[in-house]
Amino acid sequence: MPIELPSDLAASFWLLGLINNSAYVIMIAGAKEINEGGVALVFLCNVLPSFLCKLTGPAWFHLVSYSARINACMLLMSSSFFVVGLASDYRVKLFGVCLASLQSGLGEASILALSSRYEDPTLCLTCWSSGTGAAGVFGFAWVYVLNTLLGWSFAVTLGVANLLTACFGAIFFIMLPAPDKDPSLDVDSASDSDGVNGVVDDSENLLPSSPSSSADLDPFPPASPSASLKKPSSSSSSSSSSLASSPAPMSCMSRFLFARTLWPYMIPLFLVYFAEYAMQSGTWAAIGFPVTDESARKAFYQQANWVYQGGVFVSRSSGRFWRAGIAALWAMPVVQCFMLVFFYLVASYQIMYDAAFLLVLCFFVGLLGGAVYVNAFNIISREVEEGKVELALATASVADSMGIMLSDVTGLFLQACIYEKYGITG
Q1: What is the model's pLDDT at position 231?
Q2: What is the pLDDT of residues 351-395, one digit of tens each?
């Protein structure tokens, strides 16, 4: 039986997910190289700009084409590698980390939303999620192989990573098929219609499209009633009908009011990310055999994160095989919060203190986190009314960044409490 190769669409979304999140992971993996005395500050700089981008995105994403946003991502990614790699002042390095964070957030929100323009958004979202799950392993492996095994400096390790930037652009602009659906059917229709960002005016859209004219248009325009697509209308009547059915543009306030209706999907995302990242930074960093040995704590922390990333990759790749309902989506973060409490008790009182057993649970934590991510966005693509899916996917992505931000503060507090109990300094 021949092996079925993935389609260009599936492979493109998987690779985009892998590369988009790689810069973020590489900065985390090299946090001690960036700022030895303030790793927590590196973590904060690696999430705050992403959070702000996703938070404000609903107000301006519809004004900027996807192609322009991807070009911005490429510029930000490359700049972050150069700034962090070449700067000597830690404050300048932290600015470079902020650039990587902004790139990651802009890319994630944009490509999640773009999935709604294809006939099979579940395939797109699952492949994207799987790719982002693989990015965790890939990013840590990049730093480990080049910096640790080969002995390259961190600056060279980051410089070589600019190959990822070139691949990111090639995948989006060359490999990724053009969208199937008409963006004029989406509420993100407040974009300009005077030819900006590859969008033509309404009068041009009423005429039959010729191959030469459509080739000059951006295949990834912002959602607009005048956007041209891969499959242009064959007659003026069909074009007129499409335009007539386009919903009215939403105001900025309407967009934020709409965001409030997404709480059934955003709260599980927020909770699962808060719990798992608080575990990583607050409890896993305070477990060791014995806990008073710094090298033992570091060894367990690294092992736990590798196993966790494996669990994330497996579950984020499961979107085509298991479709969770809203009840399961809410149940998984509750279990994750129980896991946070359990690991805090383990670290504080050393109950069930067995490395192999705990690593299995770390894998389970990764499974829960990845499953919530892929299923939350898949449920949104199924349950939100079609005209608002694109906006909903971009908006809901802010929830994970919010959870990570709060977990950074909580994790520092939990780690300090456990360290104090065992008389550990640091």
Answers
A1: 38
A2: 999 999 999 999 999 999 999 999 999 999 988 888 888 889 988
For the residues of 120-181, what is the DSSP string, one character each? -HHHHHHHHHHHHHHHHHHHHHHHIIIIIIS---HHHHHHHTHHHHHHHHHIIIIISPPPSS
pTM: 0.79
Other C-beta atoms lying within 10 Å of the C-beta of residue 87: 16
- Output 157-163 pairs: Cβ under 8 A, ≥24 positions apart: 157/26, 157/30, 157/85, 158/26, 158/30, 158/81, 158/82, 158/84, 158/85, 159/81, 159/82, 159/85, 161/22, 161/23, 161/26, 161/81, 162/78, 162/81, 162/82
**Which is nearest to 183 in space by CA: 259, 257, 111, 247?**
247
- Name the 3-class secondary structure at 94: helix
Structure-block tokens of residue 372: 């919530």
Amino acid code (one letter) for 195: G
Rounded CA-CA distance 246/127 in Å is 30
C-beta separation of 218 from 71 below 8 A: no
The three-class DSSP label of residue 250 is coil
Residue 82 has which token pair? Answer: 């150069």
The closest of 9, 386, 15, 63 to 179, measured between CA atoms, is 9
Burial 403-412 (b: 16+ CB within 10 A, else e): bbbebbebbb
Q: Is 339 in contact with 271 (CB distance < 8 Å)?
A: no
Separation CA 12–CA 309 (nearest Å) = 21
Would you give the DSSP letter of residue 88?
A: -
Residue owning tokens 């990587």: 100
Report pLDDT digits (tens) over 75-113. 999 999 999 999 988 899 999 999 999 999 999 999 999
CA distance 385 to 169: 31
What six digits make up the tokens of 74?
Answer: 């490429």
Tokens of 55: 């938070």
